[in-house]
Design goal:
Layout (H helix, E strand, L loop, with lengths): L4 E3 L8 H10 L4 E4 L1 H4 L10 H6 L4 E6 L9 H18 L6 E5 L17 H20 L4 E4 L9 H11 L4 E6 H4 L8 H12 L3 E5 L1
Parallel strand pairs: 1-2, 2-3, 3-4, 4-5, 5-6, 6-7
């Protein structure tokens, strides 16, 4: 049965219990949770009792650990990988189904469009980063969820499919946000793009963003 969740930070920034109470009051089944955006205080990953208690009867559908795997400043990539691995290490303990990210941009920050984003070389670079993260996910009994966007490296369903096929692991899944794939040239083909997503990735899609 499908469940409907919300990005927790779209509700606001609260302590864990107040946040969970508000999510339930709105009638959602769960959340996509980004600690830094949704919680007032930093989370101590060595003591997750407060998080576990607050979300005991509310599903954490995804831990957001979005980072830019091809940032031109390598220290930013290292920091992003480190944080993503930290989220993988706690996801199972707090009942989070997936740890998610997009595929980034060579522009750095913001993650805007540059033509090199869509090259095979850059796609292979992103695949290498996520291959290592998926291996860590397996060790922690967690799953990675990747999300495409036109301005980023995985700019269409075919490139997401490339990453999925190259890594070939049950610990890698997909988030589909149709709006992210659209631009001024292709928006009239939005249903075709959505149908392509379903056709290519139907066995791997775990979250839809609307």
């Amino acid at each position: 049965m499908n469940k409907i969740g919300i990005r927790a930070h779209d509700i606001g920034k609260f302590n864990p219990q107040d946040l969970a109470d508000k999510v339930k009051a709105y009638g959602f089944d769960g959340v996509q949770l980004v600690f830094k955006k949704a919680l007032i205080d930093p989370v101590d990953t060595n003591d997750l009792s407060i998080i576990k208690s607050a979300f005991a009867d509310l599903k954490i559908m995804m831990l957001g650990a979005y980072f830019n795997p091809v940032h031109p400043k390598y220290d930013q990539v290292v920091q992003g990988i480190s944080y993503f691995n930290e989220m993988l290490s706690i996801a199972n303990e707090i009942g989070a189904s997936y740890v998610g990210s997009e595929t980034g941009s060579l522009m750095g920050s913001p993650w805007g469009y540059v033509k090199e984003n869509h090259s095979l070389t850059t796609l292979k670079q992103v695949t290498l980063v996520f291959r290592e993260l998926v291996a860590k996910a397996k060790l922690h009994h967690s799953c990675v969820a990747i999300e495409g966007a036109y301005n980023h490296v995985a700019c269409d369903p075919e490139r997401i499919k490339y990453i999925v096929d190259q890594i070939n692991s049950p610990y890698l899944k997909v988030t589909i946000d149709l709006f992210n794939f659209l631009n001024l040239d292709n928006y009239k083909q939005r249903m075709t793009i959505f149908e392509d997503s379903l056709r290519l990735l139907k066995n791997d899609i775990v979250i839809f963003h609307f």
